Amino acid sequence: MTASTAPVPAAEDETDEPPRPKDCGDPFDRDVLPTPPGATAALLRSLLAPLKARVAGTTLLLLLQQAAAQAGPLLVAYAIDTAVPALRAHERGPLIAVAVGYLLCALASGAFQWAFIVGAARVNQDVLLDLRGRIFRHAQALSVDFHERYTSGRLISRSTTDVESLRELLSEGLQELVAVVLSFVYISAMLLWLDLGIGAVAVASFVPLYLLVRLYQRRAVRVYGERSTAIAAVIVKFVETMNGIRPVRAFRREAVNDADFAVLNRRHERANGDALLEMARYVVGSRLVANTAVAAMVLWGAYRVTDGSLELGVLAAAVLYLRRLYDPIDRLGMFLNSYQSAAASLEKIAGLLAQTPSVPEPSSPRPLPPLASELPGREVVFDAVGFGYRTGGEVLPRFDLTLPAGQTVAVVGSTGAGKSTLAKLLARFYDPTAGRVLLDGVDLRELALPELRRGVVMVTQEAFLFSGTVADNIAIGRPEASRTEIEAAAKAIGAHDFISALPDGYDTDVRRRGGRISAGQRQLVAFARALLADPAVLILDEATSSLDVPGEQAVQRAMATVLRGRTAVVIAHRLSTVEIADRVLVMERGRIVEDGRPAELIAGTGRFAELHRAWRDSLA
Amino acid sequence: MPTTPAPAEETTEEGAGESPASAGQSPADAGKSPGGDAPAGRSAVRALLRLWPYVRPVRARLAVAAAVAIVASCVGLVIPLVLKWLVDGPVADRDTGGVWLGALYVLLLGLAEAVLFGLRRWLVARPLSRVEAEMRAALYRHLQRLPVAFHDRWASGQLLSRGTTDLMLLRMFLAFPLTFLLVNGVTILVGLAIMLVQDWTLGLVMLAPAVPLIALSAYFEKRYAHVARLAQDQVGDLTTVVEESVLGIRVVKGFGRHRSQARAFRALSKTLRGTELRKARLLATIWAVIMALPEVAIGATLVAGAMRVADGALSAGTLVAFLSTALALRWPVESIGFLLAMSQEAATATERYFEVMDAEPEEPSVPGDRGPAAPRPGGGTTARGTTGAADRGVTEGGLRFEDVRFRYPDAPEDSPPLLDGVDLHVRPGESVALVGATGSGKTTLTALVPRLHEITSGRITLDGEDITAMDRDRLRSLVAVAFEEPTLFSASVGENVLMGAPHTAGAADLDRALAVAQADFAHALPEGTDTQVGEQGLSLSGGQRQRLALARAVVGRPRFLVLDDPLSALDVHTEAAVEAALRRVLADTTALIVAHRPSTVLLADRVALLSGGRIAAVGAHQELLRTHPEYAHLMAGGATPSEPTEEDQDR
């Protein structure tokens, strides 16, 4: 039983110097990444572009549906003004026409409605599928550097609640909007056609309505932005607590957490309430305008009938249309509602998608040369490499280093010496700010990703397990591997015994990030993964820290046999790992201060000799 | 502090109830979509009724709002009557004054309707936000208190989607469907009544589609509920994948697996798309029927009405008013489809919410009069009273494990317990190192002390007091833990460390703890110990986090200290310094230290070897090295003793 994996910040570099402060303080201020102007609209356009034809098709369906649905009052007018007098003249034709017409309209409006909803759902779902995929892929493509600054909770809320609000807009909002606009247009046209005066009042009423909508929209932008930021903060706290439930319990943080959560939750509650109130104001305003207009039109129409310039049936139809004219006005509000929250969300998503990966894939990749010898290792050259974080501070001053193919190099040094940075440069988690890192003469930046990962694999201290079976987790190293290969890798690393002892062996579900698999066992699984990946260069960054001595030795044996001939970079606090190294690099403040064979260095009087003595003393 | 032994059967009952309770409280395959097949048999209404306790505080507001909405709707229905009066009266009579009056009525009614609808929204805006917030807070509070075993089984994505999406659905349900199902129902009834009063035959024609509509809604409700639930669970799964891909980003990147991750994600989101489309088809069907059927009825009314107007049996004004009323009822009728759909979704959201809320939390505390001893397997409740007193004698002090057995609640019944009769006594002030092979249950054993998991049988005592008889808060304030994976929370460094101490602890305690853990780097952070760390702050390295976690464990000068491999991420120099400082702390602390390395073992006075689920040996490090081959293997390695590696050469 182990504590669950630490939330996110995780092994950054061993203290990059100077530490990069994130703008600490209010989490609410830091949620939105800078979004280039127009990015949000461009994102929406690019999502809808491939679906143009279907969007047009569904819009047409809606046009037809509305036409059918809005025909009713016209038929009423016809019935009162034509069919009734005709009936009195014993002529049934017009009434039968009304009956048939009404039936057809009813059936057509039902059928078109069905087709429209299904069609619209397909468009929506395709957009969402596309967007979800884009966010996911983009988040995965962004560099580790980015992930260290942008917390997991926020990324999660981008791909959950923010996508959800777009879903609401698409599935309810957009069709509302089109329906609302269409019915406005239809009905105004009908009214104008029935009677110019009544129609004119209807059209005139759109001016104050438009102003109201504008006003509402402006205010809603702010309110909904706040709401979406507030829920993101709630999510961050929620996720952090659930992932750290053990320390939460052990240190009795429940009450304190409740209080902290209450603050964030209340903030969201307030923002939520503000949004709902804004909506209430809009509803009152728009209804007032609408109902006043109705009264005006009734007055005008009735007046005209009294002086005989308007037929009664026309007034009846007009009145029926009027009732429908402003019906969708609340729905317009609902649309604006979901539009606002979707716009706020979309802006954040656009901001995320606008982040360019600082470690981009090459546009025209170069292949690795064929292996020079039978052995799988490749040569690594750091050519005038220097590295500093964007926020300043040089972590690794310019240096040159060549690791011949097949060499096992141990990198030692105290915390913050830059060992992990060196490893991350080699694994291309970061790109150097100066110089280049070459793998068999090819710049890492020019390697296509699959090739890079066949070349270099890094195993870190935190051995993350994904939900799925143990076998699945090992197979991350090489998804096409057979079960035999997976087991062979596990055997080689000494993990086979404990895996076989699990309830379902290799098919045991590790569930929630490996809750039931101890930290040491997880590191073994991570190792088996690396073994299976069969890379030319293997980087182990503190990858044995939780193993016991026999476990570590099994790993070392595996490295000596299975990984023979591979280039390996091993970072470990415990110098036992150094035993198997051909060469030792001692780092201090970002510089390589000693470089030589272990025995030479131990015999000397330098830093390594001292470290080694200290380590020997630490062994009982 | 329990003073009198409790009646035997009561103790037995409670003790026995403990672990099965935690075993049975969540569905077996909770990780995925627990209880995904539940809604089929359950009624949506019954699910939604469970919301009552949360809605109760705002019931008055909700009721008033609903009443206001009903009045507003009815006002809307009166307008056609005014129109009828207008058409049959002033218009027919060419009375311009009457026309003005009629228009004025229409205006006033319209204004009233607008204000009332606004009032309704204003009434519920804040209260409903509060209900949502309260439910979220309750969920969070509850989750924090659920057994760790529960969290092991539930992906946090599933929990999160309950805390966000599901609760939003519930708020929307309370805001619209709940009110408007009532309001629209009343509006429809009133409208029908008005129509029946005006002309009962036409009214009956209008009523005709009601029966098929209701039957259809019921049928639809069932199908839709199932698919809605499926979609919600799939969203939860998707959330889990997103979360894992973010948290495991280094693995994904290290192995260049983001394409296959993306493929897996795509597969899941495609499944979700399929489910959503099924949902849409169901919704489309109900919509089509709900739109077409009443329209047919209106058409029939129109034809019948026109015939009667032609006969002179009906006034034109009545027909206009009738149709106007019928049209005014169109939205209420049409809306029933999506209101029911929303209610259905809300019902499944409620079920999902209560799936978590129904899980039993750790019982908050134990009554003070509990006996000090928990039942042992196979009964043996006799003589409890006599041993009770002796148990608390000096010899029984310290941390004692007695015949402790433990099996994870979700482990198969027939599997051997992970811990199978652990007996270990850590004397007061003594520190014992716990050594065992990877996966032997060391970490599990340490988790039993602060009761993060409940032992299956046996007992653990602190200074003679059974931990199951202690208030959890008190227990956890006595025992401080440093976990192998150090988690820092979004708070300052100081707050993170001081959470291990009583509230009275101050800067001096913080400095001392940081010094012990060799975490003085904290002072050099941009804002010193006020620097924010964790999710929302500065990223620290594994070693730094481990040292802060260690500082957190020692800051409160706890009586009992449990350290799980506390030095694994430290470099040699730091490790040596931490050890030197820890030794002083350990001099007067009762401690259990999980150790992988000889250097850590040497912190302790004695070593216990955990093997095969029990303590196989206890003794001094040197002694065990000589006498116990398994121990020697664990500490010194080497497949066979004949080929010792360098670190074997102990001194």
Low-confidence stretches of chain B: 1-41, 366-394, 639-651
Mean pLDDT of chain B: 78
Q: Major beta sheet of chain A, specifics?
A: 6 strands, mixed
CATH C-level name of the largest domain in chain A: Mainly Alpha
Number of strands of chain B: 12
Oligomer: heterodimer
Strand order of the largest sheet of chain A: 6-7-8-3-9-10
Task: Outline the biggest β-sheet of chain B.
Answer: 6 strands, mixed
| The CATH homologous superfamily of the largest domain in chain A | ABC transporter type 1, transmembrane domain
Q: What is the H/E string of chain A?
A: HHHHHHHHHHHEEEHEEHEHHHHEHEEEHH
What helical percentage do the residues of chain B reach? 55-70%
Residues in β-strands, percent of chain B: 5-15%
Number of strands of chain A: 10
Strand content of chain A: 5-15%
Could you tell me the CATH topology label of the largest domain in chain A.
ABC transporter transmembrane region fold
Globular, elongated, flat, extended or rod-shaped: what is the shape of chain A?
A: elongated
Overall tally of domains of chain A: 2
CATH topology of the largest domain in chain B: ABC transporter transmembrane region fold
